[in-house]
């Protein structure tokens, strides 16, 4: 047995054990920390499967931004959790365990009965991969062969922001999301908020640019930019913008709108919706990606900031 195989078996065992511990641990904060660690280990598994694009997304969302959301929720639930008297009884826990095991068994059975040679469009994708001028096969699939899905995913993010904003009271509507953060100006958090964002912005832009030919892309780069923006806000060096800001709303709709315009152009002047002209496929895709990285960064950061709470 090779060292790589031993490492993969050990990694799978650790991930499974951590998943069980995250579900079983009674403290919300401990479960949240376990979930963040779980996300980072899953990203490592995706690297071992040569799915670096998926690994970058998992690390940024599952282990990064998702962890921040859960940590904030755990902090807000801390007092209520300490005073809560009701706990699920044994029968409720048993029913939940049976349902979870049944779903897991059904999924395992569905995987086992799949045909040995499942229907696939991979040969057609590979045969036409050069039409876009993008060497990264993941970007090819997401922007060309699954372009409509990719566009609608960004629309869903935008609708999620609108849904979060709709939770604001009438008094706070148009104001700034989340509380005003204040931190020690000479503390570690403020130091990191001054040190990391310049490098993080460069990394985010690089991930966007290299996504055309190598692992990366707008979503991964946007997640990095959102993390840097949130770090500055949490350190108190900047405040969240008011949701009534015109430039903020323009950034939120820029990516989906440009995607839609290019798609309609393909419908009017090409063969179908989102049918890129071969001579301009790569510039059009890169233009959409540039607009999308701004939209993704803004939507992810605003989702974490929450609903408008104040006018100043």
Describe this structure in words.
The structure is a single chain. By secondary structure, the protein is mainly alpha-helical. The protein is built from 11 helices and 2 strands. It has helices at residues 3-24, 28-48, 52-83, 90-112, 122-127, 137-145, 147-165, 188-210, 218-234, 246-269, 281-305; strands at 176-177, 308-310. A two-stranded antiparallel ribbon has the order 1-2. The longest helix is centred in the N-terminal third of the chain and has 32 residues, at 52-83. It is globular, with a radius of gyration of 22 Å.
Q: End-to-end distance, in Å?
A: 63 Å
Task: Estimate the mean pLDDT confidence.
Answer: 85
Low-confidence stretches: none
Shape call? globular
The amount of beta strand, in percent, is under 5%
Q: Work out the radius of gyration.
A: 22 Å
Strands, total number: 2
List the helices and strands and how they pair.
Layout: H1 3-24, H2 28-48, H3 52-83, H4 90-112, H5 122-127, H6 137-145, H7 147-165, E1 176-177, H8 188-210, H9 218-234, H10 246-269, H11 281-305, E2 308-310
Antiparallel strand pairs: 1-2
Helix pairs in contact: 1-2, 2-3, 3-9, 6-7, 7-10, 7-11, 8-9, 9-11, 10-11
Please sum up the structure shown.
This protein has 312 residues and is mostly helical. The protein has helices at residues 3-24, 28-48, 52-83, 90-112, 122-127, 137-145, 147-165, 188-210, 218-234, 246-269, 281-305; strands at residues 176-177, 308-310.
């Amino acid at each position: 047995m090779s060292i790589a195989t031993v490492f993969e078996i050990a990694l799978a065992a650790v991930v499974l054990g951590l998943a069980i511990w995250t579900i079983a641990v009674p403290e919300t904060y401990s479960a949240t920390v376990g979930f963040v660690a779980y996300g980072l280990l899953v990203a490592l598994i995706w690297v071992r499967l040569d799915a670096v694009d998926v690994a970058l997304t998992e690390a940024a969302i599952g282990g990064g931004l998702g962890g921040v959301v859960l940590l904030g929720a755990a902090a807000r639930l801390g007092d209520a959790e300490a005073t809560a008297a009701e706990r699920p009884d044994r029968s409720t826990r048993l029913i939940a365990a049976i349902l979870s095991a049944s779903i897991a068994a059904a999924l395992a059975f569905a995987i086992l009965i799949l045909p040995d040679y499942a229907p696939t469009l991979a040969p057609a994708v590979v045969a036409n991969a050069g039409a876009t001028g993008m060497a990264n096969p993941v970007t090819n699939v997401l922007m060309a062969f699954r372009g409509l899905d990719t566009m609608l995913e960004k629309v869903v993010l935008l609708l999620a922001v609108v849904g979060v904003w709709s939770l604001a009271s009438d008094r706070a509507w148009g104001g700034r999301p989340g509380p005003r953060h204040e931190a020690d100006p000479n503390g570690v958090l403020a130091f990191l908020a001054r040190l990391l964002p310049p490098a993080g912005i460069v990394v985010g832009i690089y991930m966007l640019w290299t996504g055309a030919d190598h692992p990366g892309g707008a979503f991964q780069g946007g997640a990095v930019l959102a993390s840097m923006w949130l770090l500055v806000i949490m350190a108190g060096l900047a405040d969240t913008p008011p949701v009534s800001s015109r430039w903020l709303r323009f950034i939120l709709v820029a990516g989906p709108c440009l995607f839609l315009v290019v798609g309609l152009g393909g419908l009017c002047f090409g063969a179908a919706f989102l049918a890129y002209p071969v001579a301009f496929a790569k510039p059009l895709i890169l233009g959409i990606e540039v607009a999308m990285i701004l939209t993704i960064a803004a939507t992810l950061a605003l989702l974490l900031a929450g609903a408008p709470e104040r006018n100043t």
